[in-house]
Amino acid sequence: MALRLPRPHRFDGYVALGGLSGGVLLWALGLYTRRSDDGLVLWSPGWATLVPLAVVAGCELLRRSRPRTALLVGTVALAVDVVTRGSLVTILLYTDLMYAAVLYGTPAAARRIPWITGLLTVAGAVVPLAVWPVPEALLIGVVVGIVFFGPASTGLIVRDHRDAAEAARLRAEQTALLAEMDRAQAVTAERARMARELHDMVANHLSAIAIHSTAALSLDDPATSRQALGVIRENSVAGLAEMRRLIGLLRDAGAGSEPSAAPTLDGLGALVGTARANGLDVHLDAGHGGSLPTPVELAAYRIVQESLTNALKHAGPGRVRVVLHRADDSLTLTVTSPYGGHDGPRAPGSGAGLVGMRERATLLGGTLEAGPRDGPDGAVWAVRAHLPLTEGEPE
Q: Which one, of 64, 53, 124, 121, lies nearest residue 97 by Cα?
């Protein structure tokens, strides 16, 4: 089977073409790195410098896909260049092959090549100095360091920075994914909890319908039957209205789970009493008056409950105010607590509470805003929910 080489990168092709053209230009001008009478020159014809130049330029096409092969072949070509009159471009292209071998090679190669080239640099300085004890002998080590160790160490530095940037990007993506998963889990858990709480609401309407329909069928009394039918219609309309509100909430809560009793705004007094017993200075203004749709009462109760819990965890010293105001078609509740100046230890929060409150308001067609703002007594954390009361009667 024929070996099929990968297609070279466009930039590598430009480097190879530019290096080859530059080397040919220097050859045409008669510019070499050594004179023909140099003792190292074993192959003196000028055209001989073009052979290692062409080989190293060809290796540039493999600097990304086959960096190890390109470096090995380039090293042989550099050795051949040493015994000719030499070309500066060949040396420059070889330094790029050394750099690419560390940057694009395997992790093992990236660790070993700088060490090997470093040892060669030290040897290139010590051995000539021992043979020719003159300061000029150190220049051989300098040249070896420039050609070998310099590009290798530069490639290692760039590779480390590239790997660090990639690791940071992956961590950022994982953090964003975990945050999205936490948000989705919080929404799912809140919807499941609301579905369990609201189970009894619909069950109450259906139970009333069943009881009064049985009475209407059992008793031969037109007045009683008419009264029972009125109750049946009232409960069926209310039940259908609630079902329309909650149809998007219902989720499978798991086998064996028991529905809990649904709290109402009548229980706010007990809720505030518990918060006061826990150390909060709470002022309640619950002048909403009249009856409210059951889903709205439940959502308002839970929003107040979560707001008081957050105030207990995070609020500074001062009064917490809970205000409920009912308009003709909406209920507005506001919970404010001192913001900042918390002396004691803070309880950790996951952020799921705000997600749950906002989800409750959104599912009823309302809005919820939470954040710091300026109040008469200084900065406060305010939670403001606007919950609509009316919804078109089911057809």
A: 64
Q: Which residues pair with 388 in a beta bridge?
A: 330
Q: How far apart are CA 214 and CA 225, in angstroms?
A: 10
Q: How far apart are CA 325 and CA 286, in angstroms?
A: 7
| Nearest in space to 198 (alpha carbons), one of 245, 232, 233 | 245
Which alpha helices (DSSP H) does 330-382 contain, by range?
352-363
State residue 90's pLDDT score.
93
Taking alpha carbons only, the member of 91, 97, 92, 89 closest to residue 73 is: 97
The encoded tokens of residue 285 equal 């203004």
310 vs 177, which has greater pLDDT? Answer: 177
193 domain residue, yes or no: no
Q: Residues 158, 37: one domain?
A: yes
- Residue pLDDT, tens place only, 322-346: 999 888 889 999 999 888 755 544 4
3-state secondary structure of 256: coil
Question: Long-range contacts of range 271-275, CB-CB < 8 Å, 24 or more positions apart?
Answer: 271/301, 271/304, 271/305, 271/308, 272/308, 272/322, 275/308, 275/311, 275/312, 275/320
Same domain, 121 and 75: yes
pTM equals 0.52
273 shares a domain with 233: no
Do residues 221 and 157 share a domain?
no
Per-residue pLDDT band at 200 (split at 50, 70, 90): very low
Q: Hey, CA dihedral for 66, 74, 105, 100, is it positive or negative?
A: negative
Do 141 and 125 touch, CB atoms closer than 8 A?
yes
What residue numbers bound the domain in which 322 lies?
265-388
Q: Which of 128-132, 141-145, 258-262, 381-385 has the highest mean pLDDT?
A: 381-385
236 and 302 within one domain: no
pLDDT one-digit tens code per residue, 250-264 = 544 444 444 445 677
> How many structural domains compose the chain?
3
Amino acid identity, residue 197? E
As a whole number, mean pLDDT of residues 98-124 equals 92
Q: Tell me the C-alpha distance between 204 and 302, whole Å.
A: 20
**CB-based contacts of 340, cutoff 8 Å, min separation 6:** 316, 379
